[in-house]
Amino acid sequence: MIPGGPRNSREMAQMMRRLGLTSEPVPDVEEVIVRTRTKEHVFERPEVTVLTVQGVRSYQVVGQPVVRPRGAAAAPAGGVPAAPVAPAGPPEEDVRLVMEQANVPREEAVEALFQAKGEPAEAILKILTRSR
Q1: Distance CA 107, CA 92 (A)
Q2: DSSP assigned state of 103
Q3: 99 sits in which H/E element
Q4: Which of 3, 85, 108, 132 gives 104 a disulfide partner, CB atoms 3.0 to 4.6 angstroms apart?
Q5: How far, CA to CA in Å, does 111 sit from each of 36, 95, 101, 119?
Q6: What is the pLDDT of residues 94-117, one digit of tens each?
Q7: Tell me: the pLDDT tens digits for 52-74?
Q8: DSSP string, 15-72
Q9: From CA 130, how far away is CA 71, in angstroms rounded?
């Protein structure tokens, strides 16, 4: 609690409005997935709240995640098989970046990204230096 602050939920709501802060729950959330380059943080049935502070929206996710390697599919509820997961490759934005910067076709950009262990800058440099 904030010293000298609101004493009840009504006062707290008034103070939040004065600060330009609104909070609204997102109902019926089944799953939230946070993907990094190598992992997925999967929240099953989390509580999700949208916080808006002076026009900027933030999402608050509350729950216990299951951390798994990226691309590893969990068994779906109800026993229905999931669609096949495409093999993990470089992110599309990295492929486009390499294609544009090095002026190469998609296949060459993907191959360069694999050789550069997913680092777009290194892939571009490899393509440009071997062209000379």
Answers
A1: 12
A2: T
A3: helix 92-102
A4: 108
A5: 21, 10, 15, 12
A6: 999 999 999 999 999 999 988 988
A7: 887 889 999 999 999 999 876 65
A8: HHHHTTEEEEEETT--EEEEE-SSEEEEEES-EEEEEEETTEEEEEEES-EEEEETTP
A9: 33
Higher pLDDT, 41 or 1: 41
**pLDDT score at 31:** 94
| Distant-in-sequence, close-in-space partners of 124: CB < 8 Å, separation ≥ 6 | 97, 98, 101, 102, 112
Amino acid found at 45: R
Please tell me the predicted confidence (pLDDT) of residue 23: 86
Model pTM above 0.70: no
- Alpha-carbon Rg for the chain, nearest whole angstrom, is 23
What is the spatial distance between Cα 113 and Cα 71, in angstroms, rounded to a whole number? 18
Residue 39, burial from CB neighbour count under 10 angstroms (0-12, 13-18, 19+) = middle
